[in-house]
Structure formats: structure tokens, C-alpha cells
């Protein structure tokens, strides 16, 4: 199989370390690759990035993908210089210990390792327990509390030291595909719309949202500001094609089989139908998922903004969500970009998605 080349915009986003509330590195990447192609480019008090194409068009379409990721935040340093932390976002406690981490500080990056009591030093009953967060620490090789606090500060954030690489063909692994791929999709879709010079009826606002992992906070404020008539959110979704995943409970979605189009109360039925039509017309492979409640994505906030927004949700299949080694097929990412571009071009002047 030939080597697959990842887009530079995407790889730079994956390299950026951007836990919720500390998204500066990812913001800088979005600024670099999207701002030059936007008619209007803005930020806000929550750190969202809002890029506009065809500002005089109607209706207004919002594309949303979040740029924050899971992380750790320093809360305490003990007398021996070991660092304790709280989690940012939903972590699996079974995989936190024994990881290399990078702490962002005012003086630069500091490397460390997450530690806990070794299995040899545990009683039999303790070996079967999942450690609590306060039973895990970060070791930066400090000799004392004072030594540690010369290098780090309370409130500094950390991420796992796991970088992007390909496993095979177009299948890659990274620390934060969730949801750097989504931020890439909304930014790249706007760039391609601009470069194509194709006439478009709608105004498109691509938003790289912040703080999704702690409650879709950036989407809540940016949806109010943009005031869209219709919106597409993009996030990662569970690929259920791996062992020990019951399709009767979680549906059937596969890595490499195309973007996942959602159906359910969070989704406007006209938007869903249009997405399927666009995918079929452009010969873009796609999959379906059903969700009976507000989804755990930006879509749940956008749908309820102001007087309500006609909302759609497209997910990129992903294995091992919220672990340091998430797995994605970059062909699915590319097909998601194509779908967003096709959706934007399909909208007619002043078209309504009310139903």
C-alpha cells in the first residue's frame, strides 16, 4: 500500500496541545491556516475562532468543530515535589498512570511521568481496584516542593505525550483526534469553498469551538453570536467494529466506511435528508447512527440557541475514544470535508429548513 500523506493543517492541529480552557496552541494553528481565506475572522471571550465566507449570503450556515482536548490541571504539590492534578474532560482512570506527559508552563514545556504505587507494593485486594485520581501523581524529577514550583505552577495544564503517526495506509493514531479532526473539517471546508470560487448562496461561518469536553461551552456562546439558520456540527463517533462491542447496544459503524450521519431529536430532519442527498450525489460513502436524545456534541447546544437552529451532526468513525492512542482513517476525514463543502453548495438563496 502506498504511503498516505496527511494534510499539514491537520497534523499541526494534532501536534497542538490544547486542553479545555487552554486552547492557545490549536487557536494559533487555525489562525494560520484559515484566517487568510476568510472574509471576516474573529475571536471571542471564550477563545472561539469564527471564520466567515460569503458574508452577504443567506441563509447563514454554521459549521462547528471543537479544538479542545482532554487534559490534566495541577492542583497541589507535596513536600517532596510530586504533583497532584484534576482531570479536564472524561478520562478512563485505568489508563492514566504510567504515561509520559507534557506540562505547559509560563517558562515553557516541562516533561513528566504519571505514577502510582507499583503492583509489587500492593495488597491483593488493592491490585483489583482502579486508582482514584488523588492516588496518582506526576513526577517531574523534582527534589522538593520548592524545586517543583520553580518549574510549574498551580493551574498549569498537561497533556499525554503521544503524537500522531500512521499505523497502516491511511489509518493513523493520535492523542487528540477528538476533535482536532472536526476543527480541521470545518476550517478546511471554508478554505476549499473560498479557493473554488464557486458561486454560493449561503453565508458560511466555520467555528473552531472551545471547551466542548467540559460542557459544549464554546458552541453555546458562538451559536448565539453567529445566529445561524442552519448548522452542521462535526465530532468523532464510536467505530463499533472492534472486539467486545455489542452492536445490539451501540449500532454498527466502521472505520473507513465514511462519515457517520446522525438521526434523532437533536437533528433537523430536513438537514439529515439533505446530507444524505449530498453524499449520494457526490458519491461520498456514509454511515448512519441513531441517537434518541441530545447528543454529547456541539450539536446539542447549537440546536437550542436563540429561537432554535436547524442542526445536523456528522461524526468521523474513531476507535478507543478518550485514550492516548485514538485511531482514525484519514479517508473518512477527507470524505467529511467533501460532504461539508457539498452541503454548503447545495443550499439555495434564503432557503428555510423549518418544518
Notes on the structure:
- This protein has 355 residues and is an alpha+beta fold.
- It folds into two domains: 233 residues, Zn peptidases (Aminopeptidase), CATH 3.40.630; 90 residues, Elongation Factor Tu (Ef-tu), domain 3 (Beta Barrel).
- It contains ten helices and 17 strands.
Q: How do the strands and helices of this protein lay out in sequence?
A:
Blueprint (H helix, E strand, L loop, with lengths): L7 H8 L8 H11 L5 E4 L5 E5 L6 E7 L4 E7 L5 E6 L11 E6 L2 E8 L8 H4 L9 E3 L5 H5 L7 E4 L4 E4 L2 E4 L2 H20 L6 E7 L7 H10 L3 E9 L8 H4 L9 E4 L5 H13 L5 E4 L7 H6 L6 E9 L7 E4 H17 L9
Parallel strand pairs: 3-12, 3-13, 13-16, 14-15
Antiparallel strand pairs: 1-2, 2-12, 4-5, 4-9, 6-7, 6-9, 7-8, 10-11, 11-17, 14-16
Helix pairs in contact: 1-2, 1-5, 2-5, 5-10, 8-10
Share of β-strand residues: 25-35%
Going by CATH, the architecture of the largest domain would be: 3-Layer(aba) Sandwich
Order of helices and strands: HHEEEEEEEHEHEEEHEHEHEHEHEEH
- Evaluate the radius of gyration: 21 Å
Q: Give me the CATH superfamily of the largest domain.
A: Zn peptidases
Q: What is the helix content? A: 25-40%
Q: Please tally the helical runs, counting DSSP H or I stretches of 4 or more residues.
A: 10
Main β sheet profile: 8 strands, mixed
As laid out across the biggest beta sheet, the strand order is 1-2-12-3-13-16-14-15
What is the CATH C level class of the largest domain, in words? Alpha Beta
Q: Report how far the terminal alpha carbons are from each other.
A: 47 Å
The low-confidence runs, each spanning 5 or more residues with pLDDT under 50, are none
CATH T-level fold name of the largest domain: Aminopeptidase
How would you state the average pLDDT, rounded? 97
User: In the residues, how many domains can be counted?
Assistant: 2
The general outline is globular
> Total number of β-strand segments?
17
The structural class is alpha+beta
Amino acid at each position: 500500500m502506498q504511503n498516505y500523506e496527511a494534510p499539514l493543517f491537520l497534523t499541526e492541529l494534532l501536534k497542538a496541545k490544547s486542553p479545555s480552557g487552554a486552547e492557545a496552541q490549536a487557536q494559533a494553528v487555525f489562525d494560520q491556516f484559515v484566517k487568510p481565506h476568510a472574509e471576516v475572522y474573529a475571536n471571542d471571550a471564550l477563545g472561539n475562532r469564527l471564520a466567515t465566507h460569503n458574508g452577504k449570503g443567506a441563509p447563514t450556515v454554521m459549521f462547528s468543530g471543537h479544538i479542545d482536548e482532554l487534559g490534566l490541571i495541577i492542583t497541589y504539590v507535596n513536600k517532596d515535589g510530586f504533583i497532584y492534578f484534576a482531570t479536564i474532560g472524561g478520562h478512563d482512570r485505568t489508563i492514566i498512570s504510567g504515561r509520559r506527559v507534557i506540562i505547559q508552563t509560563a517558562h515553557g514545556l516541562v516533561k513528566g511521568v504519571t505514577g502510582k504505587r507499583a503492583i509489587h507494593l500492593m495488597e491483593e485486594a488493592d491490585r483489583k481496584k482502579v486508582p482514584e485520581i488523588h492516588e496518582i501523581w506526576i513526577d517531574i524529577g523534582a527534589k522538593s516542593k520548592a524545586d517543583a514550583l520553580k518549574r510549574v505552577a498551580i493551574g498549569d495544564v498537561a497533556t499525554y505525550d503521544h503524537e500522531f503517526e500512521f499505523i497502516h495506509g491511511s489509518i493513523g493514531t493520535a492523542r487528540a483526534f477528538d476533535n482536532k479532526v472536526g476543527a480541521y473539517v470545518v476550517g478546511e471546508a471554508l478554505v476549499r469553498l473560498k479557493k473554488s470560487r464557486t458561486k454560493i448562496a449561503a453565508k458560511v461561518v466555520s467555528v473552531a469551538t472551545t471547551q466542548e469536553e467540559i460542557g459544549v461551552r464554546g458552541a453555546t456562546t458562538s451559536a448565539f453570536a453567529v445566529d445561524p439558520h442552519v448548522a452542521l456540527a462535526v465530532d468523532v463517533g464510536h467505530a463499533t467494529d472492534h472486539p467486545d462491542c455489542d452492536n445490539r447496544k451501540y449500532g454498527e459503524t466502521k472505520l473507513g466506511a465514511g462519515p457517520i450521519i446522525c438521526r434523532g431529536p437533536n437533528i433537523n430532519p430536513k438537514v439529515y435528508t439533505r446530507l444524505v442527498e449530498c453524499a449520494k450525489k457526490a458519491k461520498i460513502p456514509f454511515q448512519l447512527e441513531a441517537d434518541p436524545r441530545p447528543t454529547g456534541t456541539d450539536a446539542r447546544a447549537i440546536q437550542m440557541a436563540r429561537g432554535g437552529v436547524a442542526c445536523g451532526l456528522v461524526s468521523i468513525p474513531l476507535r478507543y475514544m478518550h485514550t492516548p492512542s485514538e485511531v482514525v482513517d484519514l479517508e473518512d476525514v477527507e470524505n467529511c470535508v467533501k460532504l461539508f463543502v457539498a452541503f454548503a453548495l447545495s443550499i439555495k438563496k434564503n432557503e428555510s429548513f423549518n418544518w
